[in-house]
Design goal:
By secondary structure, the chain is an alpha+beta fold. The chain has helices at 2-39, 48-58, 60-81, 84-90, 99-136, 140-143, 250-255, 259-285, 294-321, 326-349, and strands at 150-151, 157-165, 170-180, 183-197, 200-213, 220-232. The chain has a six-stranded antiparallel sheet with strand order 1-2-3-4-5-6.
Length: 368
Amino acid sequence: MLFHSSIRKELARSFGATLVVLVTVVMTMTLIRTLGEASRGTFNPADVMIIMGYTVLSDMPTILSMSLFIAVLSVLTRMYQDSEMVIWFGSGRGLASLLKPLLRFAWPILVLILALAFLILPWAFGRIEDLRYKYDKRGDIARIEPGQFQESANGDRVFFIEKDARGQQTGNNVFIATQEQGKETITSARTGRVEVIGDDKFLVLDHGQRLERTPGKADMTVSVFERYGARVGADDQSTRDYAPTHAKTTLELLQSPTPPHLAELAWRVGLTFAAINFIVIGLASAGVNPRAGRAGNLGFAFLTFVVYFNLLVLGKSWIQSGQVGFGVFLLALHGGALVLGLLWLTKRHTNWTPRLRRRRTTAPEVRP
């Protein structure tokens, strides 16, 4: 039908424009948050763009759901404003008959949300955890940053260099504080460089001094050296042996149905169910209010989206703590939202309005 084709084209334009705006906003917020985490030493600053890409990819189911909801609501509101819905209703078609073209437009997006939620989302979180683990297990030399005190991987050394020459593995004004074998050692040198001797890496210091003391004792040993070598830890090449719940595959969650796994599974299932419910709610709530304009519908869409996804987050925590069951939560939230949306759509489709019964009043009898 020509009308169905035109409405799908308009939905595609609105959905694409909304998606671009939301992705831009999410990327900006993610970049700011990732830069903050990188400055605190959680991630490698060189991996900021990669981590931002994985984070945005994990947020795509939510972004696609909101874009679909806004597209449906904005297009139908525009049709009400331009009196196109009057022509649609005048041809003998009701509001519920628009559900078919909306679903024909939305089914590829729903399939994409399903694939992202069950396959791509845990993979993206797994890559983020791998990068975090690799950066946390880096060697002592990789931890050294000019002008900052950096702790070694095992926590027994603190390094500091004033400045370094990139690519040459050399630095000036080196400071090392060490605690090992019950002794505290402070070593400072004018320059330092990294040398590989055999299978080990050594930090070779030139023109410095070494102070050694035993905690609880007053004696102290100070030695001056022309050249001194200190063995530094190498990179830990082991793989990550722990996977958080959000980084586990859907098959792993199903094989071990513990409360945390069921909570994560409810979140992934809920992303798809929420997108379906948003189509019904968007169709049922579309309309025009001359006093509020389009801003009113967009405000309603944002409020509905926030409330729905906050309930998803709350339900995830409730299932994880055992306060509510997996099936009960899915039926109560998503089934309840679908029923309310269909009832609302039926009410508007049939143009039903509640009427209050008026009590009959009899005129008083007039006697002569």
